[in-house]
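Renewal narrative, Specific Aim 1. Our central claim is that a sequence can be written position by position from structural information alone. The example that follows is taken directly from our test logs and has not been curated for this report. It begins with the structure tokens describing the chain, in the order in which they were read.
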């Protein structure tokens, strides 16, 4: 008998298969989330990071950070927060928006965030973290998760204490981007360190960093023993990566067996057109194209053509010209 698809359950939320979309600024908005969801294989979607201080004042009907559709479920909202007093009002806003889970950003090394004391800076401020997580736990019954890197240096005791603090204050699931704060994406991720974290904690642990294929996913799971995998850049390069992972790792194939690449790109652009204000579309198409072009041997031509477009129409026409001339047209999802 075929074993059922594995799942992670945190509070009332069932995440099945245990494959997570990583929060990515400028990328994990409505359009990419919808494309990924329509192809299938993803267990939990995510917004990009949202500043806790600004959340209560944002208008969800027009804010391009908050736009979403009912199809994007389950959807986790990621909060970037530096002060415990900002948590409760931000959480109230996320309840109004219908969040299925809330993630606390504790790993982002971007200097702008660190200067405010948010993101990776929080790993250096355990007392602030304790207050933030306690405030978050007090203000919601939703699944509450956190995303970290391994720290500023490889310091096992410090990392363990930090992870135990998060679990002790009521975090339901922890995602570990298996790199140090200052390490670039070029460096191979330290998946075995996710395994150490997994051994210290009782809550589910999700591994993140450098997973681009089912082979990467299998190796990461073998090295880390993680409960799930989180995918970032590969989700923008190949929105079907979740379907490929779900098929190969969890025996949960998507309904379709092959995809037309230009159709995936056009669907993404159509969703931007349908939901975003005209002035918010082109930048997002350029950002996505930077990743999507990696599917083509001459993808830099597509990237340059779209990058140098001065209007939405021009970008779409240039992309179409590229797709007519270049292979591949189709990608097989395999079963
Ligand atoms: C363009 C971009 C934006 C990102 N924005 C966020 C963010 O808003 N919040 C966050 O926690 N991590 C952010 N990250 C980090 C990713 O969530 C993820 O940890 C990282 O890309 C490693 O995973 P990957 O190798 O699968 O891409 C971002 C990464 C990229 C490339």
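The sequence written for that structure reads:
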């Amino acid at each position: 008998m075929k074993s059922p698809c594995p799942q992670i359950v945190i509070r009332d939320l069932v995440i099945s298969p245990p494959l997570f979309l990583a929060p990515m600024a400028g990328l994990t908005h409505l359009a990419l989330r919808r494309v990924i969801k329509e192809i299938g294989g993803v267990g939990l979607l995510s917004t990009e990071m949202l500043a806790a201080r600004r959340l209560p004042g944002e208008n969800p009907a027009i804010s391009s950070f908050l736009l979403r559709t009912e199809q994007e479920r389950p959807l986790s909202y990621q909060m970037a927060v530096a002060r415990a007093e900002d948590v409760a009002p931000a959480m109230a806003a996320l309840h109004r928006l219908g969040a299925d889970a809330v993630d606390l950003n504790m790993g982002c090394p971007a200097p702008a965030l660190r200067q405010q004391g948010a993101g990776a800076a929080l790993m250096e401020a355990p007392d602030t973290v304790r207050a933030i997580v306690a405030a978050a736990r007090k203000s919601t019954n939703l699944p509450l998760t956190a995303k970290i890197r391994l720290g500023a240096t490889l310091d096992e005791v410090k990392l363990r204490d930090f992870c135990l603090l998060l679990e002790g204050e009521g975090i339901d699931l922890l995602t570990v981007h298996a790199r140090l704060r200052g390490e670039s994406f070029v460096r191979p991720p330290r998946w075995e360190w996710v395994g150490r974290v997994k051994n210290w904690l009782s809550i589910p642990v999700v591994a993140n960093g450098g997973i681009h294929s089912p082979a990467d996913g299998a190796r990461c799971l073998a090295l880390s023993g993680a409960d799930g995998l989180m995918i970032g850049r590969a989700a923008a390069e190949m929105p079907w990566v979740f379907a490929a992972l779900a098929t190969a790792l969890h025996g949960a194939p998507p309904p379709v067996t092959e995809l037309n690449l230009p159709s995936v790109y056009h669907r993404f652009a159509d969703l931007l057109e349908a939901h975003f204000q005209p002035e918010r579309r082109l930048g997002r198409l350029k950002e996505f194209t930077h990743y999507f072009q990696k599917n083509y041997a001459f993808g830099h031509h597509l990237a340059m053509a779209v990058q140098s477009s001065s209007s939405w129409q021009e970008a779409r026409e240039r992309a179409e010209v590229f797709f007519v001339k270049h292979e591949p047209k189709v990608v097989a999802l395999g079963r």
